[in-house]
Design brief:
There is one protein chain. The chain contains nine helices and 24 strands. It has 346 residues and is of the alpha+beta class. The strands form seven sheets. Strands 15, 16, 18, 19, 20 and 21 form a six-stranded mixed beta sheet that branches. A hairpin with a 5-residue loop joins strand 7 and strand 8. The chain is globular. The two termini are 23 Å apart. 33% of the residues are buried.
Length: 346
């Protein structure tokens, strides 16, 4: 689960040209615009990442004009987004340790203590439906860590080859088969079968129930199209693109090569228009930390046009190790385009 509010140490505070009242704080791979003199290098602080959803409290009221949102469950609060101030990208918010014990160790997750949740956009009407429960515990919920929190990867995996795939801007969808049980899920919830529910319509369109018989797998992908995230890709109806396959029996993600082979098997003998497709692959194998020596060059790599619609800027890139296999499968992370984030309106 993503740690939205953590104890961090400020690496450095830099001046901003032409700014008398603000400066720039660097925290791991992130940077945040702060009031001048508010913090200094070496200070322990609470860092709230972008996409944090802050509760309605007096100390956060300064965010109301720019950040007020209502979640799907009716909860009101403030969503932190990427912004640009005096030419500097600012991502997140720094808080003093006044509400947290000062001796709380670095890297401690304090999201629950502060009531911080991840912002979730309202569920599109075409996807909402009867919920039967949470996604089963033996299936990992899809959520890639951002490279800004994994700066050590530039050294640790400097020689490793990664698959680079496009991160599509839609809504997460998982279809799983486990010992005869079939489930269709959003990001967190399993939906009851319905003729009108979009995720179930996609499952039936691709005949997933029959194609997964005898295989305990969870196919995880992005649902995009009409009614979803403003339909950036200009689709008619909705579609689904696989980005991961979770092997339920072994409790791990398949490697990129294993995923490609499994999709090939699942698509054998299937008409072209009914084949399960993967998200656009930018490069099958790239030594990304050899090509991009620092964070700025990697984030620049993440920017570009979508492989589905050339007039659309892609959200970012997901990287998955080609060769490293660990307990849960592979080493993976995402890099989100700052240009995309700054253009984001909701």
């Amino acid at each position: 689960m993503r740690k939205l509010a953590t104890i961090r140490k400020i690496k450095e505070v830099r001046p901003i040209d032409g700014a008398d009242k603000i400066e720039l704080a660097l925290i791991d791979g992130w940077q945040v615009v702060i009031r001048k003199g508010e913090f200094k290098g070496g200070d322990k602080v609470v860092y709230l990442e972008v996409d944090s959803f802050l509760p309605i409290k007096p100390q956060y009221e300064f965010l109301r004009k720019s950040s007020y949102k209502v979640m799907a469950d009716g909860t009101e609060g403030f969503r932190l987004r990427t912004v640009k101030l005096r030419g500097q990208i600012s991502q997140g918010l720094l808080l003093p340790l006044s509400e947290i014990s000062a001796d709380t160790p670095i890297a401690t997750d304090v999201s629950d203590v502060l009531g911080i949740r991840k912002y979730e956009a309202p569920i599109p009407a075409c996807i909402s439906g009867e919920v039967t429960g949470k996604i089963p515990g033996q299936i990992r919920v899809t959520d890639q860590e951002r490279i800004q929190n994994l700066i050590e990867y530039f050294q640790t995996y400097s020689e490793e080859s990664f698959e680079a795939s496009e991160k599509l801007d839609g809504t997460s969808m998982t279809i799983y088969h486990a010992d005869g049980e079939l489930g269709v899920c959003g990001h967190h919830w399993v939906y009851a079968e319905s003729e009108k529910q979009t995720l179930w319509k996609i499952a039936r369109k691709f005949n997933i129930p029959d194609r997964l018989k005898g295989r305990n797998l969870a196919l995880q992908g992005e649902c995009i199209g009409e009614g979803i995230q403003k339909n950036h890709y200009k689709l008619t109806g909705q579609d689904w693109f696989i980005f991961d396959i979770w092997d339920i029996d072994s409790g791990r993600y398949l490697t990129p090569a294993e995923r490609v082979e499994t999709l090939k098997e699942l698509n054998t003998g299937v008409p072209e228009h009914l084949k399960i497709r993967a998200v656009p692959i930018i490069e099958e194998s790239i030594k990304i930390f050899e090509q991009c020596k620092d964070l700025s060059s990697l984030l620049e790599y993440a920017s570009g046009v979508s492989g589905l619609e050339k007039s659309v800027r892609r959200e970012g890139v997901v990287f998955k190790s080609c060769n490293i296999v660990i307990d849960s499968g592979i080493v993976s992370f995402k890099a989100i385009s700052n240009i995309f984030l700054l253009d984001e309106k909701e």
